Amino acid sequence: MADSTQWQRPLELPADAVTPQTTAQPPHQPARELPLEQTELTETDPAPEPPPSPRRRGGGHRLLLLLGALLGLAGAAELYRLISWSSAIHPLLGGGFTLLTSLLLLALGLEIRRGLSGSRQLRRVQALRRQAETLLQQASHGDSTPLLRQLEERYRDTALEQELRRAIAQLDSSYNDREIIHYLNRHALERADRAAQRCVQRYSVESGVLVALSPWASFDMLLVAWRNLRMIRELATLYGIAPGLLTQGKLLRQILYNLAFAGASEVAMDATSALLGSSLTAGLSARAGQGIGAGLFTARTGLTAIELCRPLPAPGQRKNLLQLIANGIVRRLTGRGGETEAEGNV
Amino acid sequence: MSIAKKLGGLIRQSGLSDWPEQLKQSLERGLEQRVRLAITGLSGSGKTVFISSLAAHLLQSDQGRSLPFFSPAAEGRIIATRDLSATAPNPFPLQRSLAGLRASPPHWPDSTDALTEIRLALRYRRKPGLGRALGEHSTLYLDLIDYPGEWLLDLPLLTLSFEQWCRQQQALFASPPRAQAAADWMASQRQIDWLAPAPEGQRQRLAAYYRSLLQQLREPPYNLSLLQPGRLLMPATLTGSPLLDLFPILQNWPQEPEKADPGSLFTQLQRGYHDYCEQVVRPFYQNHFRHFDRQIVLVDCLKTLNSGEACFNDMQRALTTLLHSFHYGRNSLLRRLFRPRIDRVLFAATKADHVTANQHHNLDLFLGLMVAAAQREIRFEQVDTRCLALSSVRATEAAQARLDGQHLSCLRGRRKDTGEAIALFPGEVPVELPRVEQWNSDRFRFVDFAPRPLPVGPLGPEHHIRLDQALEYLLGDLF
Q1: Which of A61, A104, A301, B227 gives a 20 to 30 Å CA spacing to B50?
Q2: How many CB pairs under 8 A join A and B?
Q3: ipTM score of the complex?
Q4: Which residue of chain A has the CA closest to B438?
């Protein structure tokens, strides 16, 4: 009968053919008796593609490369001329300049290396998140094992390792892939999430207050940019991504891209909290309103940075946090000293 | 004197006498502090185990370990839980059923033969936000009742007259497998003149016969569910009462029932049916089955898979009819105060531990097939529903077997009847209704397992399957 091949008959097994699954290890080793069906399913119903990252390179990219090469060559030639000129004056002066130059080059090389590793980590985190998002759409069982392994590998020897490993060990053998992702989302990054939210809150309240108090309007932008960059750097470190100028730049570009193309609902949600904030400050002053705006912008940047640095899709707590931040700024400005509560309540 | 007595009876009947208590309950409910969760399930679907496990986990939910998907517990917002059922007239025997599960060897609780209540008070911290304005701490009272599942099937009788009920039963008994099993019963009914005066004791004799027939239909190989009147199967305090001398007229329905002799079987049965509805079913319904806020419907899908299509159809019919006895709909504030309706329903396939973990999703889908009609009607009232496979107490361990060089997920546990340790690959749960020839093939073999012993100390997430998700769905929004 053709039917008999579609399903597996029930079996009673001799007790010695069985090895118990220990829950200490990832329990989903090779539970793969339905792989064929499942692969077909995902093929017929492909997961929605994530929005393509900005890729407008091509001609512009080549131009930049050429420009960079030109500048680099010019710089190298200038340095060479500087060293040869100084060593003609006095060998000691030449030596000093050579030393300085080589130190500079070394530092540059280190920074580039760190940046490269940072952006590689960022890419990996992105890949992990995409994988997790796909798993969230399915009701499959056992497909998350590679993801778990990659997660463990990625966060080995970082501050997140211990918590992640404990959460993975606590996973129950009956969870399907969606439940595994939900579980890890809630329990594996708890400490980092809490620290990150506190960090976002601190920086947003700070930049809000700074803008509200700063006497020069033109200075505001610089202030906000400075606080934002510091915050992004700190957030990246919290989530185990090597901070560096290159990483920071890359992250910033992605954040701005995400902010610019945020969904309408998100914008509306953020706007309501901004409105609420401004209604609170109506009695204060226009500067305070600007402060709130700057604070909320920082908060949004921070939350987007968290989303980008997390290896798992972030749970939605956005509105709550934005609200808290708006309230925190108002409290600081009106001197009601409620900041401890605002920071403790996340 | 008699008028005063009558008035007193009326007041008692309408429940006016305890209005201060009722008012307080209404207020608490209005503030969403008192939740009545309806635990609905046919007999053997696991209501008692569900309640015991739920209470045991909630009582230690302040430790936040065993319910990782129940957000108030996982976020550590539950301060403590107290069991208030000692004040109830019939407290739920929580300690007894837990002791049974902790004993060595552990055993499932005995089948329930009386109505019992349990009331839990959960003290929790509110979520940060506007709600905190009402105070940081709050208490949620959770009321659950446990009762024999057989009684549940009496609820639909309240809307039927004796004649309607008989017509319904006639249709049921006309089709297999009832028609074969009840052939003798039908033949004996054919001999009876319903309108003529009946000899003494005939009704009792026939009722006893009908009861044994119902018992036979409940057991394997039939495993039927839609067996009315339910008290015949589980009489409890009514054992031997003349109220239970009741059976439907399946054959020879009288042409002119109004000509019945006052002493005839027809009149006796009609009166008996009325008395049964008014004196047995209605108090049960009025006192315990109105005013629910949330509902969980427990369904034993594996039993139907094991016993075949007739059992499936019968259980489906039973569930659909009995869910008509509940009120569904959204609750406005006023409505919540005075006449709440069920605004969230979870259909749960119990015994999820009796299939391998990769079959849980299939079990969800299969349950969806069974309750599709009921779910549609409930959704029409704009009420949320969801299907979930769960297991209140886990009886098996997941294991791997190597067979012909292939890994096979299987289960290890002890048989319920013999206690013998077995390893079993129980087959795959179908996601669509199997065809007629597949029902009784050897496609699945679900064995009843004995429970694994529960620890005396703290429970963990490994002692249940998705109980926390069920809780989160049913109650998570109230914290």
Answers
A1: B227
A2: 123
A3: 0.76
A4: A3
